[in-house]
Amino acid sequence: xxQFRIGSAFGIPIxxxxxxxxxxxxxxxxxxxxxxxxxEQFNQALGTGIAAxxxxxxxxxxxxxGTVAAVGLFAGVVLHELGHSVVAMRYGFPIDSITLWxxxxxxxxxxxxxxxxxxxxxxxxxxxVSVALGVAFGGAYLLVPESLPAVQFxxxxxxxxxxxxxxxxxxxxxxxxxxxxxxxLLGRTRPFARATKIAADVGKGFALLMGLVGxxxxxxxxxxxxxxxxxxASNEAQQTVMKAAFEGVTVRDLMTPAGxxxxxxxxxxxxxxxxxxFRERHTGxxxxxxxxxxxxATLEDAQSVRPVExxxxxxxxxxxxxxxxxxxxxxxxxxxxxxxxxGVGRLLVADGGEFVGLVTRSDLMTAFxxxxxxxxxxxxxGPGKRRAVERAPEEFxxxx
Length: 400
Ligand SMILES: [Zn+2]
What we know:
Elements: E1 3-9, E2 12-17, H1 20-32, H2 35-46, H3 61-90, E3 95-101, E4 104-109, H4 116-143, H5 149-169, H6 177-186, H7 192-216, H8 220-245, H9 251-254, E5 256-257, H10 270-280, E6 284-289, E7 292-298, H11 299-303, H12 315-318, E8 325-327, H13 332-342, E9 346-351, E10 354-360, H14 361-376, H15 386-390
Parallel strand pairs: 2-3, 8-9
Antiparallel strand pairs: 1-2, 3-4, 5-10, 6-7, 9-10
Helix pairs in contact: 1-3, 3-4, 3-5, 4-5, 4-6, 6-7, 7-8
């Protein structure tokens, strides 16, 4: 168990990731060990008079201040994520959960909006909450009497950090908030996939820049965030481009129909199965018994038996009986996501409960490459794929 639930708000479960438990003490330490210096910086910047000396005695006081400030900071992160979530829910996108982890918070959207106005509103809502918190703490900072230096410090710290959090998140480094804002703005005049591609490229550029600055300053956190941004930008760009390419393509279009599929029987030996895989250069066979589908035997299944024992084992001993199926009418992207989620390379295609075919990851990847090379990437519009490129952004509605 990597995550545990600590509560909920607006019906959204709020979870802590185990990695967060490493970050919290680190922040307590960073804040606690610097209270004196930070207080002096606040005094200089804001013209206030926090008694910096009073923050360090008794000796445990800095750690109490550090703990309260760190918990307050992460509560601010949760509120930031709730800002995104509440707006997303208003548009009808369910939120799985809000999770605090090593790099802050994530609000898990089950699906991403493709309407630029909705994306803009959802992306900007988090930073708006953070700025509002910063302003509120800033106001409170001016009201706290100087006889309470510890309270003054915590309130001032939270004012500065919430504004900093908003500013950092607004860097146009997709998939951070600023990158989503950028994509939404680009999406006003461009197809969604094109806007994503540009925003992702800008995000990757920023990630490289952050990584470089991180390396020069030996700042491990910055290097890690840069890596996270780079991978996130690449993944989202690839998925979006695929989704646009697969527009209107269903599983039925790409599957191998049942009639053309080579099957094996449960009584086939594993040695014969491997021999067939080698001859037919095929790594997965549906297993049928008297015309009925009973399982799926893949190369991986076959390899679970040691070579010397492959004559003694039958397909029915190693085959997967827990079959992952998909509807023939489902779109190709859904099939791709399904394979990712289930960690499988092939799906059995069903139509009204009947087995009608098989679709593999390589079927999808090959189809994607063909669509892409037929003009999608260059935006000139390939055969049958023009719609995905030429649709006006206004037409991108969420239809599921
Ligand atoms: Zn955010």
